[in-house]
Amino acid sequence: MPIARGYAATDASKPLTPFTFERRDPNEDDVVIDIKFAGICHSDIHTVRNEWKNAVYPIVPGHEIAGIVRAVGSKVTKFKVGDRVGVGCFVDSCVGCAERDLDREQYMPGLVGTYNEFEADGKTRTQGGYSDSIVVKEGYVMSIPDNLPLDASAPLLCAGITLYSPLRHWNAGPGKKVAIVGMGGLGHMGVKLGAAMGADITVLSQTLSKKEDGLKLGAKEYYATNDAETFTKLAGTFDLIICTVSAEIDWNAYLRLLKVDGALVVVGIPENAIPVHAFSLVPGRKSISGSMIGSIKETQEMLDFCGEHNIVSEIEKINIQQVNEAYERVLKSDVRYRFVIDIASLAE
Q1: Per residue in 192-222, is it b (16+ CB within 10 Å) or e — as a string?
Q2: pLDDT of residue 68
Q3: Which whole-number Å values give the CA distances from 340 to 201, 287, 314, in the listed order?
Q4: Which of 112, 166, 168, 241 would suit a FRET pair with 5, their CA atoms being 20 to 30 Å apart?
C-alpha cells in the first residue's frame, strides 16, 4: 500500500504531530493526487478536539485540498497526469443507494467524509489533506481552472462551496438584497461570490474593524451588529441572510431584518439550539433554513464560476509546522481570511 506523510491528531488534548500512514491501493477508477496545498477549516479544529464527539484517532484533517494528478486508473477518463485538481469535504456518497443523487448527494445517507470516516468497505479509514498524497475516486475529484492560483483555490473546496450553494439555491442575483453575517473565512467568500452574482451585498459583523476589506471585496454596505441602531435601521431590508458564525446571536433580531418571504440560512453551527419565536416567522412568512456544502456537480460549477470571475480566497500561507499555532489563531479570529498549508514544507 502507498505510504503517505502528514500531520495527525492522536488525542483531543494533544497538538498535531508528524504522522506516517498507509493510503489504500489505487483502483481502476481512482486518481492519485500529490497534494500541494490544504486549507484549514474550523471544522478541522472541532473534529480533532472531539468537540462533535465523533473523533476516531489518529486523524489527519483537511478537506480543502488542491494538488496535481500523479497517476490515474485504467478506467479514468476525466483526468490525466499533471492536471490541477481539488478534493473537498467528501470522497464518496450515496453508498448503498441504487443510484447516486448527483444534485443532493451531500444530504443523502452514505456520505463519506474526506477524513475521520470509513470508506465504502467499512474498514479503511479516510485521512485528509494535511498530507502529501491522497487516492480518490474519479467522480469525487474536481478540476481547478488554470487561471486560478492553486494555493488560494484550496479553500474554495469547502469555504467557497459552503457559500455558493445557498446563494444559488436562494437565487441571489440582480435585484436581491443579501446580508452576510460574519466577515471571516466563510463570510468573505460570501461577499465575493454574492457580488459576482450581481446581488446587493451587505456585511453584518460584530464591529467595523474589517469594513475596508468588506467593501473592497464587493460589499455595498457594512454594519456593526454591536450597535443596536443597526437592527432598527435595517428592519425589513433583506431577501436573504446567510449566517456564517457559530457564536450565540439574537436570532429573532436577525429575522426582523428580512423582507416578507425572506430566508435566514444557517451555515455556521452554533453549539446550542437556536431559539426562535413563532412571531418572528409567521407575520412575514419568513423561514430559517440550513445549508451544507454542495454536491460534486455543484462544486465543479462553483470552481468554474470562480475561474470566470477570478475569485479565490484571501489567504495566509503557512508551513505545516505552524499548524497548531494557526489553530489557536483561528479561534481568536486572527487570520484574514483563511490559513493554507504549503505541503512542500513537510520535507523540511
Answers
A1: bbbbbbebbbbbbbbeeebbebbeebbbebb
A2: 98
A3: 26, 35, 10
A4: 112
